[in-house]
Amino acid sequence: MDRTSPARRLVGAGVALAVGTGLCLLGTAGTAQAADVNVVKNAGFETGLSNWTCSAGSGSAVSSPVRTGAGALKATPAGMDNARCTQTLTVKPNATYTTSAWVQGGLTYLGASGTGTTDVSTWTPGGDWTKLSTTFTTGPNTTSVTVYTHGWYGTPAYHVDDVSVFGPDGGGGTDPDPVVPAVPGAPSVGTVTTSSVALSWSAVSGATGYHVYRDGAKVQSVSGSSATVTGLAADTAYQFQVSAANAAGESAKSAAVTGRTSKSTGNPGNPAVPKHALTGYWQNFNNGATVQKLRDVQAQYDIIAVSFADSTATPGQIVFNLDPAVGYGSVDEFKADVAAKKAAGKSVIISVGGEKGNVTINSDASATAFANSAWALMQEYGFSGVDIDLEHGINSTYLTKALRQLSAKAGSSMVLTMAPQTIDMQNTNTEYFKLALAVKDILTVVNMQYYNSGSMLGCDGKVYSQGSVDFLTALACIQLEGGLDASQVGLGVPASTRGAGSGYVDPSIVKNALDCLTRGTGCGAFKPSKTYPSLRGAMTWSTNWDATAGNAWSNAVGPHVHNLP
């Protein structure tokens, strides 16, 4: 908020005070003059439209664009309404006031009425932030004045920020001067590249800006609660802190957080997973498919996703409940099977979500609850990481925070996979796609579900029907060209006709799609403009349905994946 601090002073004969600094010449020789103030309340619209009235609901408080602080007025003329917004002020008689405001957008007027002398106004035809200013003197009996803004009929919306009517206090007082804001919480690390680290933090009340520190040195100042620090070295850890600031000063720096840039060579994701990997979901329940213990999962599978974790009454928190239906005599027997699979070079991870499961992660508290509980499961059961299979909507901002907190606990060995539905990865503006890109540096593979989907758009803008090689290749192309590394893309299909309601394809079609994407052979009508030899591989639901069909899927697709270039 752009509020001039009142200056306490004596005005003597022949002393001139500069109006340009927000001060005006008042009083006569030898007369003590009290400090001038800004008599406008909520001058920067930081508390919405409180103290303001706008005609016909034409005005609203917005967070962008703003000149300072977190709020500004947006008012939109419509029909015969010129979007007039007003505030009635308490003033002193026979006093001079300087009125100003910063405006942007369409044609905008600023004025004062009811002055008891000559009402005043000024205007600008519009454009970028411009300061309007005028001066009025109150009449001998005037104790209130209305300050107003308005646009003009048929013109675009206008924006107003940092309104000031500066002069003697008429008894109504002014908004309190700002105080130094509180210390922000430690920032969260977002997307990293070989040369940059994205940071975000919770906004601090009263702050009009923030300073970003890298290893103790201030490197950036921003008005919002996020920033990207650039010009960094690859594969290097940095300490980041933020402070909050306003006209009163700067807070102390936050607690430090470590952000590490990605390596300049090699593919992102976990190096412990084979270059080309087969992923299978293991069912912790009996739905008519072959019941397996983990030790029975076919050897072709490199990543085994235990399905599923359960949510609790605490938002974001997950637990794992071993289902007696799968035949384990004890939890320790299950843990021993996890350890045996890991000893054989497999990654056993805990999957979160599924068709009926849901975990709500939409706040800092729920993000922390997820990270803490997932880490506890990894420690207790020996899981190598997590799989995100949430099919009922996600909040990419907070799920990113959760996964980064978990990665900070688990380290670089954590396996992170995802299984979005086709609709979730149609473009980079979807929450799932934003999540995948935000955690790209710690992401192992996205195995999109190419089933239960119907027809969808491919990367060439054409519609393709599920069950074809074109459906697999043209939709994979969206991810491959949308920012994911080829090593982070896998093809997810059912293991049998009973594994999904629709979308089953013969293993030969899966092999053709893999060849098309990696070698440029076996394509259908759609042929990618280039090949992606490092494509991660394929996934199936589930190892149990595969076993029910005599392991036909893993016996055919597994060796093919492992022999990709």
UniProtKB/TrEMBL annotation:
<dbReference type="InterPro" id="IPR017853">
    <property type="entry name" value="GH"/>
</dbReference>
<feature type="domain" description="GH18">
    <location>
        <begin position="276"/>
        <end position="565"/>
    </location>
</feature>
<dbReference type="Pfam" id="PF00041">
    <property type="entry name" value="fn3"/>
</dbReference>
<keyword id="KW-0326">Glycosidase</keyword>
<dbReference type="InterPro" id="IPR003305">
    <property type="entry name" value="CenC_carb-bd"/>
</dbReference>
<dbReference type="Pfam" id="PF02018">
    <property type="entry name" value="CBM_4_9"/>
</dbReference>
<feature type="region of interest" description="Disordered">
    <location>
        <begin position="251"/>
        <end position="271"/>
    </location>
</feature>
<dbReference type="InterPro" id="IPR036116">
    <property type="entry name" value="FN3_sf"/>
</dbReference>
<keyword id="KW-0378">Hydrolase</keyword>
<protein>
    <submittedName>
        <fullName>Carbohydrate binding domain-containing protein</fullName>
    </submittedName>
</protein>
<keyword id="KW-0732">Signal</keyword>
<dbReference type="InterPro" id="IPR008979">
    <property type="entry name" value="Galactose-bd-like_sf"/>
</dbReference>
<keyword id="KW-0624">Polysaccharide degradation</keyword>
<keyword id="KW-0119">Carbohydrate metabolism</keyword>
<feature type="signal peptide">
    <location>
        <begin position="1"/>
        <end position="34"/>
    </location>
</feature>
<dbReference type="InterPro" id="IPR011583">
    <property type="entry name" value="Chitinase_II/V-like_cat"/>
</dbReference>
<dbReference type="Pfam" id="PF00704">
    <property type="entry name" value="Glyco_hydro_18"/>
</dbReference>
<feature type="domain" description="Fibronectin type-III">
    <location>
        <begin position="183"/>
        <end position="264"/>
    </location>
</feature>
<dbReference type="InterPro" id="IPR050542">
    <property type="entry name" value="Glycosyl_Hydrlase18_Chitinase"/>
</dbReference>
<dbReference type="InterPro" id="IPR003961">
    <property type="entry name" value="FN3_dom"/>
</dbReference>
<dbReference type="InterPro" id="IPR013783">
    <property type="entry name" value="Ig-like_fold"/>
</dbReference>
<dbReference type="InterPro" id="IPR001223">
    <property type="entry name" value="Glyco_hydro18_cat"/>
</dbReference>
<feature type="compositionally biased region" description="Polar residues">
    <location>
        <begin position="259"/>
        <end position="268"/>
    </location>
</feature>
